[in-house]
Amino acid sequence: MLAAGLGTRLRPITDTLPKCLVPIGGKPLLQIWLERLNEAGFGPFLINTHYLHEQVEEFIEKSAFRDQITLVHEPEMLGTAGTLINNVKFFQGNDGMVLHADNYCLADLGEFRKAHQNRPVGCEITMMTFETDDPKLCGIVELDEKGIVVGFHEKIDTPPGNLANGAVYIFSKNLLKKLPFDLTEPKDISADIIPQNMGKVATFFTLDAFIDVGNPEALVRANSIHTSLKLA
After folding, report:
1. pLDDT per residue over 120-165, tens digit each?
2. pTM value?
3. Burial class for 13, CB neighbours closer than 10 Å (0-12, 13-18, 19+)
4. For a tag site, which of 27, 86, 117, 173 has the least CB within 10 Å?
């Protein structure tokens, strides 16, 4: 799980609190992810840290999931692709899920895994997608008739639709094995890995709540949904 970001758009909340620990319904985002992933049968987990990392480390130390978690501190952020490649051995030759811990996501993670297991032949990545109300702030995808990504537009002024990349992925073991050799100085999954694998990215669309908790308005919306659904 990617949890190193600064969360600048959520200031002043994130002046003293890392974004992954911002509460939704009184529960840190990271806790929500760990509970939902565990319920869906995922684990163990690797979590990278950078900004206010001591708070994340303290949270994990007190977590019921601490024995399943490997923490990796980055004194300098490596970028999403850099983190993935730097820790590729963690997956031990298996397929691996990568996600941003600062998203509020209620998608069925078990069904997401099934979609990856049943992905079209030749696809190396399964990407979670959702419909966004603000496509200019997202990576927008174009799909073929099989639901494979054939076009990808990262935060442009005139996006060709509103089907967004949720930045929740499952990577095949084959691709994970090759990544350290295929990319030089990688920084970002969306900028460096997805374009290189165009035509090899299957998709899983969710109608369930999916919110990038990147600004105060999004945080209010996520809390409202969580409260209305009476989630623990």
Report:
1. 999 999 999 999 988 888 889 999 999 999 999 988 888 888 999 9
2. 0.91
3. middle
4. 117
